[in-house]
Design a protein that fits this description.
The protein is an alpha/beta fold. Helices cover 37% and strands 26% of the residues. It has 3 domains: 168 residues, NAD(P)-binding Rossmann-like Domain (Rossmann fold); 162 residues, Dihydrodipicolinate Reductase, domain 2 (2-Layer Sandwich); 83 residues, 2-Layer Sandwich (Alpha-Beta Plaits).
Amino acid sequence: MKAINVGLLGIGTVGGGTYTVLKRNAEEISRRAGRPIRITMVADKNLELARSVTGGEVALTDDAFAVVSNPEIDIVVELIGGYGIARELVMKAIENGKHVVTANKALLAVHGNEIFSAAQKKGVMVAFEAAVAGGIPIIKALREGLTANRIEWLAGIINGTTNFILSEMRDKGLPFAEVLKEAQALGYAEADPTFDIEGVDAAHKATIMSAIAFGIPMQFDKAYVEGISKLDAVDIAYAEQLGYRIKLLGIARKRDSGVELRVHPTLIPAKRLIANVEGAMNAVLVQADAVGATLYYGKGAGAEPTASAVIADLVDVTRLHTADPEHRVPHLAFQPDQVQALPVLPIEEVITSYYLRMRVADKPGVLADITRILADSDISIEALIQKEAAEGESHTDIIMLTHQTVERDANAAIGRIEALPVVQGQVTKLRMESL
């Protein structure tokens, strides 16, 4: 059977891994796909790098538009990243009737609605397993494996950089800035780590998963995003004493009034499997009505794990290459005319539990004043630690865990607590999820 010709845009870490794995496992892959899949053209600004990876066995160009316009190319693999030129190339490939495989979570989270609509009209596929959690097949699980279920919520450790930093802060008791330098030295963090440490990367991925889980459009601009750069090592230690671990979670939950879509540091009970995901590993926990909780764990980044997902998409597209477009799996799991524009709830309307740490004067009546304010807001306390004041100190820490409440009420209560003359500075607030 005629081979499928693939044009590769970008032969950096993931592109190089894709080329290497596809070549190494060519026989196994073609047995599964039903025909050979060959990268026949590669575009990269660094032609010398492209030549060294491919051994000059394929056509090379520094003009990516030459690939998406080549009539011999069946599938375009976009591994350039970013929102700019990548969007132009993907839209041009679709316009030219080519299927697209991409690992570009930022592009899909921001422009996915437009891209999927164009692909639907043109009768081509856009596959994006590698865009979320590297080699973990979470997109396929949400879109196909759990198709009989109503998905209730999902929560994921979907950024390896931040998980590595939090693991090191907990294990070594070091401050954030010190561990970030270590992560950069080891290659886990970029020179500019903003997208990772401020939660933007995780929010891109959570946006994509929420769209597939609930049949809603991509709504990245509505996501609540909070990173780990302001997290204090003392809170990680206190959480541990209370039986919790702090993880940066991407959370999507369907409620009657809309969808929660949020990324922030979260306390999770230490006995949960997902709380024990350490280092640069990723994990996604999905709660569905029929199957219950399922956990997906593995490497969320790296050349070959991500290449594994890219090639799985290539095989899927190859199998369906000649299929009637109306009978393919829809991009967002639900039929395009069944996607519902459910609102993403503002963070003030989120319902969750809280960890509160406050620095207070070490004298009688302080705790009673604080608990009265919480009671007035119908916020009940699940656990409490009051630390002994250090010798010569006039202030000490109180740490409280609350039961579930609406964020707006929690914020109002915190404002009143901070106004008490016995409270020093601001209250540290972290969200908690029992999962």
